[in-house]
Amino acid sequence: MARPRQFDETAVLDRAMQRFWEHGYEATSVRDLAEAMGLTGASLYNAFGDKRALYRRALDFYIENSFGDRVRRFEGRLAPRQAIGAFFDEIVERSCDAGRRGCMLVNSALEVAPHDPEFQHAVADVLMRIEAFFRRCVEAGQKDGTITSAQSAEDLGRLLMGVLLGIRVLARARPDRDLFEGLLRPVFFLLDLPMKGAIQP
């Protein structure tokens, strides 16, 4: 009979995520991870597999506790235009406070994905989820009249995804709130343009 694990899996996975997020994949050794997680090397391998497998678990954990969490809190609970605004409010806050770590997903796209087909697909899948979230918000906002229909929901969803990624890359080198908000103002102005064909006072 297998012995029950003597640790909180969520807590140790969070510590692994923090280590990878801070130092990147290549610069983080299994010894570093074991020390950060408070595990022996054998316990780490038994619970999570090798370093690459642990990185995938840590990345998935990061995504579900960042992007996934925002979608669950905002989509369907806030009006579509408000959901987009709230999403970016949190992104700006996080990008200013992350200590130049940027976004673990973007870091993975730049460091790991170019050399690993599995991670290429994993990152691409998340980017499609992000794009789909924005597209759904735009479609709903176009239906209720709070978002312009002068541009297609598909194009606006892609624009929002691109701006999100730009902010998260800039956060690595220039975590400047004025810069981020300056990027967002023209985007929100575009979203808030009068509905195509609407009669203006």
Q: Can you walk me through this structure?
A:
The chain is an all-alpha fold. The chain is built from 10 helices and no strands. Helix 1 (9-23) packs across helix 2 (30-37), helix 6 (80-97) runs parallel beside helix 9 (153-173) and helix 6 packs antiparallel against helix 10 (177-191). The longest helix is centred in the middle third of the chain and has 28 residues, at 117-144. Residues 29-48 bind DNA.
Cα-atom radius of gyration: 20 Å
Strand segment count? 0
Strand content: under 5%
Helix-strand string: HHHHHHHHHH
Number of helices: 10
What structural category arises from helix and sheet content? mainly alpha
Helix fraction, binned, reads over 70%
Distance separating the two termini: 75 Å
Shape: elongated
